Amino acid sequence: MSSSSKSSKPSVPSLPSKDDLPSTEQVASEVVQTTKSSLTSGIRSFAAGGVGGICAVIVGHPFDLVKVRLQTAEKGVYSSAIDVVRKGVAREGLRR
């Protein structure tokens, strides 16, 4: 081995001086601002999840109703899923 290779130690970062640190008031202000934005973000996420859930039920419920009617009806009552929809609309209308 050659004596020209040096073992390099990782450099250790120096600690900031007291003048480089934010004041207590600045930290408190930043915490309040971050907390408010987190709360607003959480409320938005909750509302978006609720709206998404409602949309999923509105879209999915009619399909589930057709599936259940096909599964529970006596043999020969319905010939297809379209038949379930036709007979259901004729018997009950579009709104219940």
Radius of gyration: 33 Å
| E-strand count | 0
- Topology pattern, helix = H, strand = E: HH
Structural class: mainly alpha
* Arithmetic mean pLDDT: 86
**If helices are DSSP runs of H or I spanning 4 or more residues, what is the number of helices?**
2
Q: How would you describe the overall organization of this protein?
A:
- The protein has 96 residues and is mainly alpha-helical.
- 64% of the residues lie in helices and 0% in strands.
- It contains 2 helices and no strands.
- It has helices at residues 24-72, 81-92.
- The longest helix has 49 residues, at 24-72.
- The model has no long low-confidence stretch (mean pLDDT 86).
Summarize the structure.
Helices cover 64% and strands 0% of the residues. It has 96 residues and is an all-alpha fold.
Chart the SSEs and their pairings.
Blueprint: H1 24-72, H2 81-92
Jot down its keywords.
single chain, 96 residues, 2 helices, mainly alpha
